[in-house]
Write a structure and sequence with these properties.
The chain is 17% helix and 41% strand. With 121 residues, it is an alpha+beta fold.
């Protein structure tokens, strides 16, 4: 077998093949993804995932399940709500919890408080 720079060419082929496999493994690796259902009231509330806005009326969002995420829902005249999706291992695979987000934003001022304030005449 021919020698290159003092090394058997078969070793070069083996080293190159191993390197190619490592590069291919990293290039083909896709992070785990999970669909999370969103149900936010009022329906016209703004929803942000990790600071990025979602399109109005989005019902599902696909998120990496190998890291936590923060979901913020807000609308003028309502208290904002924040939900943290945490990563948990289920059967050795990362999963987000909760898998469904249900948020009902609370008005800043109740519509009917049952109290009436009267002034002096």
């Amino acid at each position: 077998m021919e020698r290159l720079d003092g090394v058997d060419s078969r070793k070069w082929v083996g080293v190159c093949a191993a390197f190619a496999l490592v590069v291919a493994a990293f290039a083909c690796h896709t992070p785990p993804v999970q669909r999370v259902r969103l149900h936010v009231e009022p329906a016209d509330a703004q929803v942000f995932v990790d600071g990025a806005p979602l399109a109005a009326g989005t019902a599902w969002v696909e998120l990496r399940s190998d890291r936590p995420h923060v979901v913020l829902s807000k609308r003028d005249g309502y208290r904002p709500a924040q939900t943290v999706l945490e990563t948990r291992s289920v059967d050795g695979r990362p999963r987000l919890a909760p898998a469904e987000i249900r948020v009902r934003l609370e008005p800043l001022v109740p519509k009917e408080s049952g109290f009436r304030i009267e002034g002096e005449d």
